[in-house]
Write a structure and sequence with these properties.
Number of domains: 2
Order of helices and strands: EEEEEEEHHEEEEEEEEEEEEEEEEEEE
Number of strands: 26
Radius of gyration: 22 Å
Shape: elongated
Number of helices: 2
Structural class: mainly beta
Distance between the termini: 28 Å
Strand content: 25-35%
Helix content: under 10%
Oligomer: single chain
Length: about 425
């Protein structure tokens, strides 16, 4: 069975966060510190350095007790009452984590294959607790080989067992104090999950899905907010070159362009020129605000992906019929996957034939500041109009689904600032 490894990223930097002058005792993978650390921005993935050794936190038990592992997820050697040199995040940006974790020059995995390392890798992203500085390290293309049990997960922590401080993840609305990745992010690792991130790209595509290797893998992307601020950019989210027979679960995400105003701009687009042979894309429980919500090109492929669209709301920017803007633009001739439905938009292009709400006036339920994309709890067009019959591949996350039935169409609800459907 693969070991589980945690490394953390925090734009605050890699400086020492420990409280007081603790000593550490380790017994059977549990570290006990002599000083309470619960007021610090510490959690899973943080490194505890003591003497000439290092361990990484894999679980918080209390302010003084932590489960810890070696850099490869194994149980560390026992020790007793050794002075702690420091407790810190090993990386100040995803860019550095991407470069250093697989490199033989650094003391982390030393390989780009999670199968070779025999680990399930978690990169945990923390807010800057001092001044909310965003992660501006650079464009990130994370590409690590893996399989169903040895996969990559990049996420923000939410549990008490993961982090002492709250607020690392947004609550459905863009947050300048939660973790923000302020450059393009590429999910290029087959067998990977990106969860609870905010990605804001000032001058290019915000987010790419595109593992060109690793056929028949599964990719998950959920609970994220993706945005771009440049009106000349065409896509916020781009399904790029993807290896054959890949399954993508893309759900509970918010996608928007705050300045875009022409028909060349899309919220989600499938990349022209790639056939996505035998791929299956599930796009569900999302909110999109862009000139064109979703775009599927016609470039003459003989074998295209099957794309399921369910519980998705699209508000087109500057929408008028004469502008030629449409919510769901399918140029492929293949059509959307059977079972698509329960979508909402301002025209009659909603995928599927069941439960759709079309030709709506959605102007009143979208904020003018291009920030708040949570529902108005009183809007009958979207509240309680979705289906909870979602794709079977979500069973891994089924515990996150709301017990309230029926669900709402789109990602988040503006009621007590709680996430809708998936948290």
């Amino acid at each position: 069975m693969a070991n589980t490894v945690f490394y953390s990223v925090c734009p605050f930097g890699t400086g020492d966060l420990k409280v007081g002058l603790p000593t550490i005792t380790i017994s059977s993978g549990v570290a006990t510190l002599s000083t309470n650390q619960s007021n610090a921005n510490i959690g899973v993935g943080c490194c505890i350095e003591y003497g000439s050794d290092k361990v990484y936190i894999s679980q918080i038990n209390s302010g003084t007790s932590f489960n810890v592992t070696t850099r490869l997820g194994a149980a560390p050697n026992n020790c007793e009452n050794i002075s702690v040199v420091g407790i810190y995040h090993p990386f100040d940006s995803l860019y550095d984590a991407e470069a250093q974790i697989p490199s033989a020059s650094y003391d982390y995995l030393k390989t780009s294959s999670l199968v070779t390392a025999d680990v399930q890798l978690n990169i945990v992203c923390y807010k800057d607790h001092v001044d909310g500085t965003a992660d501006t390290g650079g464009n990130v293309t994370i590409s690590l080989a893996g399989d169903a049990t040895r996969y990559l997960k990049v996420y923000t922590p939410t549990l008490n067992s993961e982090a002492f401080l709250d607020g690392h993840r947004h609550n459905g609305i863009w947050s300048t104090t939660a973790y923000v990745h302020a450059n393009t992010l590429w999910q290029y690792s087959p067998w990977s999950q990106f969860v609870g991130l905010q990605v804001s790209e000032p001058s290019g595509v915000a987010y790419y899905i595109g593992p060109s290797s690793g056929a028949s893998s599964t990719i998950r992307c959920y609970n994220n907010i993706f945005r771009i601020l440049n009106s000349t950019v065409k896509e916020v989210v781009l399904f790029n070159q993807i290896a054959s027979s890949t399954t993508v679960y893309f759900y509970n995400n918010v996608i928007y362009q705050s300045q875009a105003s022409n028909t060349a701009n899309w919220g989600i687009a499938l990349q022209a020129g790639y056939d996505h042979t035998n791929c299956v894309f599930y796009i569900e429980n999302c909110t999109i605000h862009a000139p064109v919500g979703m775009y599927r090109p016609d470039v003459g492929e003989t074998d295209k992906a099957t794309v399921y669209v369910k519980n998705v709301l699209v508000k087109t920017i500057g929408f008028t019929v004469t502008e030629g803007l449409v919510a769901f633009d399918d140029q492929s001739g293949v059509g959307w996957g059977a079972g698509s439905g329960y979508n909402a938009c301002e025209d009659d292009t909603a995928p599927g034939s069941t439960g759709n709400h079309e030709n709506l006036d959605l102007s009143a339920i979208f904020a003018e500041d291009f920030v708040d994309y949570r529902t108005n709890p009183e809007d009958s067009n979207v509240i309680g109009q979705a289906t909870n019959t979602i794709s079977s591949g979500y069973s891994v996350e089924i515990s996150w689904f709301s017990t309230t039935v029926p669900w709402d169409i789109w990602a988040f609800v503006n009621e007590a600032n709680e996430l809708d459907d998936i948290v």
